[in-house]
Design goal:
The complex is a heterodimer of chains A (379) and B (185).
Chain A: E1 2-5, E2 15-18, E3 21-25, H1 31-38, E4 44-46, H2 49-56, H3 65-79, H4 85-97, H5 111-118, H6 120-130, E5 148-152, H7 161-178, E6 182-193, E7 200-205, H8 216-228, E8 236-247, H9 267-276, E9 281-286, E10 296-299, E11 318-325, E12 332-341, E13 347-357, E14 360-367, E15 372-377
Antiparallel strand pairs in A: 1-3, 1-4, 2-3, 5-8, 6-7, 6-8, 9-10, 11-15, 12-13, 13-14, 14-15
Chain B: H1 9-20, E1 24-29, H2 36-40, E2 49-54, H3 61-70, E3 74-79, H4 86-96, E4 101-105, H5 111-120, E5 127-132, E6 141-148, E7 151-158, E8 164-168, H6 170-177
Parallel strand pairs in B: 1-5, 1-6, 2-3, 2-4, 4-5
Antiparallel strand pairs in B: 6-7, 7-8
The chains are: A alpha+beta (379), B alpha/beta (185).
């Protein structure tokens, strides 16, 4: 179950923002609270996102097609920014020409015809609008937008575009140096003039979200071009630069192996980077125990330097936790007698042997109860 | 590495192939206990930074690290049981370029994973040491290991002039070789 509301309400931890609407996923909410939510008039409920949203937009069989047009504009602006308003107009103009005025009349057109005439993007849209119960909504979890902002107040007011450009370039360079994996989608420049009527706003959109550091020179050229188009009739006393960043754009894979990004790093940097990815590098640290399985533990190489006990050479290289085995049938050769009291008071008594079995020399021991265990392979 | 003095047709062909690539893959084939882990350190050079990747850590690490320390090798361990994350791990390791040698400890790689590694490290100077019980393609040196008469026998079937080498199995010779009277049965 999904809920749509015009205001942000704490209905569910899983929610997204679609234009002016807030869409909440209520699948994991207790039925008691679902009933409570349903009783509220400002909240629109549906079995899926499409149904709830169409209710909120009051789009039904008898609603005029013009309402669907305004919804489609919102939809494409959000999910397909490449789609222009002109293209949307063109599609709905066709319906107007053939005299389709209500949404229900669209049901007369087979879905295949939508695809043939307007393409798959439109076919999917109309399919979802006409059969909202079967349609799938593209869920984009809500993320609060983060901006990088810098205010530039010059000692002497700017009178030329080149001065503004230089200052903006400095700020952009600082941002690019601070964050290596830094992409951006929008740059807003607000120019406050001495005469308030001459204030100017400049918005640069970068829908392909370029990398700031790599494209710094190109951004400069774009800025230079756009600033050169402005006419300053009054000196600029204040510049506000705002950048909308996009962090770690991993879903765009330009090269399978990304050879350009490999830059030699120190092992410490590598450890930190791998740890952030959930891989844990380690080095061994000796522990105060003679039991082989408890004689060492894994520690991060960033924490401590390894230290080893002197008796380590008299044990085989392949070791694991003791596993119970039946009594060995072949010859056994004594290696080590171990008597040890653990910190928790546990008394360990083990006689270690090696025995040849299935083309391997096994490292085995017998405990005080005369039970046999395998703890490693000789190597 | 292969030298220019190779005369046989196969070696010449192999030399032409390896000349283009920077990475170097060595494979040590043998079951556990055949000495592949013990011997692997002899394939490493001093002052190399080595990462030892295992899906399930079975090695008595203090001993391995001590031996590496004696050879001035900087060793780092990494245990990753999730096969689906290996490619991500290798890509990260390749990007950082912090380690000169990767030792892949009985990972039982699939052909796709091997091909991925081959493509990933084609122009990287990284050395890869595969320890496993069956042979892989894409390697410049292939060594079969076996334990015989208190020695680990290394038999090259690819690279290194197809020679044979023996390294003493110290632990076994200490326990069994010198003190046969300790046999209890």
């Amino acid at each position: 179950m999904f809920a749509v509301s015009a205001e942000k309400i704490e209905l569910s931890p899983v929610f997204m923002k679609f234009q002016e609407w807030w869409i909440y996923d209520l699948k994991k909410i207790h039925p008691f609270w679902k009933n409570k939510i349903q009783s509220q008039k400002k909240i629109f409920i549906g079995q899926n996102e499409w149904e709830a949203l169409l209710k909120a937009e009051s789009i039904h069989n008898f609603s005029p097609i013009g309402r669907l047009k305004s919804f489609s504009e919102k939809y494409y602006q959000y999910y397909q920014p490449q789609m222009s308003f002109k293209e949307i107009d063109k599609v709905f103009m066709h319906f107007h020409r053939v005299g389709l005025k209500k949404l229900a009349s669209l049901r007369k057109i087979p879905l295949l015809q939508f695809q043939k005439r307007f393409g798959k993007i439109w076919a999917d849209f109309f399919k979802a609008v006409l059969n909202p119960y079967q349609a799938k909504w593209i869920w984009k979890p809500y993320e609060e937008e983060i901006f990088l902002e810098e205010k530039i107040e010059p000692d002497e007011a700017f009178v030329q575009a080149s001065q503004i450009l230089e200052e903006c370039q400095k700020v952009l360079k600082v941002w690019a140096d601070q964050n290596e994996d830094f992409c951006f989608k929008q740059i807003d420049i607000h120019l406050v003039a001495f005469d308030s009527e001459e204030d100017k706003d400049l918005r640069l959109l970068f829908p392909y979200e370029p990398h700031l550091r790599v494209n710094l020179n190109w951004v400069r050229r774009v800025l230079e071009e756009r600033l050169s188009q402005l006419r300053f009739f009054s000196p600029i006393t204040f510049v506000q630069l705002r950048l909308s960043p996009v962090f770690i754009k991993r879903f765009v894979q330009l090269s399978l192996f990304n050879p350009a990004h490999s830059v030699k790093k120190s092992w410490k940097e590598a450890c930190q980077k791998l740890e952030t990815q959930g891989f844990k590098l380690f080095q061994p640290k000796s522990m105060p125990s003679y039991l082989p399985e408890k004689s060492w533990k894994k520690v991060s190489p960033l924490e401590e330097n390894p230290s080893f006990s002197p008796n380590i050479f008299y044990r085989p290289l392949i070791q694991f936790k003791p596993k119970a085995i039946s009594s060995p049938k072949g010859s056994i050769f004594f290696t080590e007698k171990l008597q040890w009291i653990e910190e928790d008071g546990q008394v360990c008594f083990r006689n270690y042997y090696i025995t040849y079995q299935s083309k391997q020399w096994l490292w085995i021991f017998q405990d005080k109860n005369k039970k046999w265990f395998q703890q490693g392979i000789v190597e | 590495m292969l030298s220019k003095e190779k005369t046989s047709w196969q070696d010449q062909k192999q030399y032409r192939k390896t000349k283009k690539r920077k990475s170097y893959f060595v494979q040590l084939i043998g079951e556990e206990g055949s000495g592949s882990r013990r011997v692997s350190l002899s394939f490493l050079k001093s002052f190399q930074k080595v990462i030892w990747i295992s899906s399930f850590w079975k090695i008595y690490a203090p001993l391995l690290w001590k031996e590496a320390e004696q050879k001035n090798i900087f060793l780092f361990g990494l245990e990753c049981a999730e096969r689906r994350r290996w490619r991500e791990l290798w890509r990260e390791l390749h990007e950082t370029q912090a380690f000169d040698v990767w030792v892949l400890d009985y990972l039982r790689l699939r052909p796709g994973e091997l091909f991925f590694l081959n493509q990933l490290l084609l122009s990287s100077p990284t050395q890869l040491l595969f320890l496993d019980s069956y042979p892989y393609s894409f390697c410049q040196e292939r060594v079969h290991l076996s334990l015989s008469h208190f020695h680990y026998k290394l038999q090259w079937t690819k690279g290194n002039q197809l020679s044979v080498k023996r390294i003493a199995a110290e632990y076994l010779s200490k326990i069994k070789g010198g003190r046969g009277d300790l046999c209890l049965r």
